Amino acid sequence: MALVISHRGANRFAPENTLPAFEKSLALHVDGFENDVHLTKDGLLVVCHDETVDRTSNGTGRICDHTLAELRALDFGGWFSAEFAGTKIPTIEEFFALCDPLRVVNVEIKEAADGTTESAAAVVRIAKQMGVFHKLIISSFDMNTLQACLRADSSTRICYLYAPATSLCEEIVDDPIAVAKQYHLYAYHPMVGMVTRDYIEECHDAGIVVNPWTVNQEHAIAALKDWNSDGVITDCPDLAMQIMYGA
User: Fold this and answer.
1) Is-catalytic flag, 29?
2) Per-residue pLDDT tens digits for 106-148
3) Domain chopping of the chain, boundaries
4) Is residue 7 flagged as an active site residue?
5) Where are the alpha helices (H) located in 97-246, listed in sequence order?
6) Class in CATH terms, 3-9+14-245
7) Rounded to the nearest 5°, which phi and psi values hold at 241?
8) Which of 29, 38, 49, 219 is catalytic?
9) Dihedral pair phi/psi, residue 177, rounded to 5°
């Protein structure tokens, strides 16, 4: 049975990557959360997809150019609906505090604007401090970031995100097992359109987990269930829960 992992929380019910979106996911009894993190100017981790706040708040500019206090002064919910006006950007600590009921916690680390990888060690350290490291998987499109996670703790479960334009895509298509061994990957997180039953079986035979994204259509969710995908990362956790569990 594929685990249902809500993409940026239940983002069709509440503003993405906010505490209300993750709380709604919990109400749907999902198996896991997926989020995105960035470092602030003062070196703290906040949950947000974009490197700027322009799309999801009433502010402007890059997250890395703002302190946490400056970011917390912004409204990250009003763009979604008046009901969520005044919603604050979450810290990773606030996010992890919601994760106790979950089976898996997927933190996606975005590549830093300056190319540094200090977010990696911070995610690992805070996950340990908050008792969720055993549930943690870290995904990224940036292999340097994933390797920095392993340097922070060699037992970190790292997952490579990829799509057709991603740097290692051709190598993975040619030989996913060799790439996984080379970089010590726990899982692949491929764009859903690139996944086949044979690909999942090949990865499973080598002990590699597969969690495709972003799986929103009923037929795709049902197919991945039939193909024994390990998880589905979805914007439609309510639909996915119904298909997976009859919930």
Assistant:
1) no
2) 999 998 888 899 999 999 999 999 999 999 999 999 999 999 9
3) 3-9+14-245
4) yes
5) 118-129, 143-152, 169-174, 176-183, 197-205, 218-226, 237-245
6) alpha beta
7) -65, -35
8) 49
9) -70, -40
